[in-house]
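pinging the channel bc i need a second pair of eyes. not urgent but kinda urgent?? the chain im working w is below, pasted from the shared doc
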Amino acid sequence: MLNVTKKVAERESFIASVIHLHLPQRQKIYDFTYNYEITNSDFTLAKPSLRPSWQGLYYPLSNEVWLCILFVLLLTPFLATLVICNRESEGDVKTMSLKLIGSLLGQSMASGRGESAGSRVFVASWLVFAFVVGTAYRGNLTAALTLPKYPPRVETVAQLAETVDRLLTPSYGKDVRDFLTQSESKIFQVFGSKLELVPDILSGLKQASNRISYIETDRFVRLAIVEHFTLADGSNSLYVGREKFLTSIAGLPVPHDAPYKPQIDRFLMMVIEVSCREPFKWHLGQQAGLYEKWSEDMLSDARRDAQRKQLEQLEQLKRRSKTAAEETEATEGNAKALSVTHMQGPLLLLLLGLMAAGLAFLAEVLAGKA
């Protein structure tokens, strides 16, 4: 593409048949035909994956709920002491403590005899609290384990500037890098310092990750993702950010003062069939030309081909492993076994509990020998 525009600038070529963004740096070298499209440049990143997290047991409840539960747990021993203080019985204290802790953990308890009316009312109110909190926590914990919380995606340009370490764009994006570097916007200047050139779109998309983003025209990048990065189940490992990275008018490069430019502009306007002479209004839905129809047909064909390839891959997988396919159909293809990623929190808690129990047992043995 650089060689094509170089020939246009040197007047060896009448026109470049590839669309270019209308940038000030390019305007100095060559002219543009009628800007028949407003082109959006999208940024592409890898979809965030689920990372192991020991806070898995903490996610089911919000910070405010945990603080309220902590406040109740700190207040309960004092209230329990006031309820049973008139009995002055060590057995009552132990029984009450076991009931409080056991009911909170969902354990059954035996009903004691000779309990005062105050202690019965206190235990009954505590049972209601433990039932509500325990049921809500267990339900939310099940949901958090089966449907874990994925890291948030980078969707805006501001988030992109704070998150990524590198930006990639094809070799013909050198003018875009110069434009970003010379921009008065601080965010664009940051992007210009991080922007690197890659040979082609596929090499750039292959390097895309959570910290590396690929910048390309929206139609090109969406088509490449559909054709080359679609998985067998119909999903893909890349996504396009919601906010546009750069928006600019675009046209075909021609030499400065080309005498045939007005005629080419007229033909382009005929193809696009603009229904309004006012600039920039055709992209608001006031045009129904051939250009958009061709673009939609191209994307539709690509999606159809990708779906056909997916079906072929699924058929091959079914033929290679019939047993696995039958098991998948029996579970409706949606059930997934929980991994260490999901269960890291409970496993870590169990390990800490076993260590604490071992230390307590060792302390009791040493104390018994002393």
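so The two ends are 86 Å apart (CA to CA). and Confidence is low (pLDDT under 50) at residues 274-288, 327-334. — does that match what u expected or am i reading it wrong
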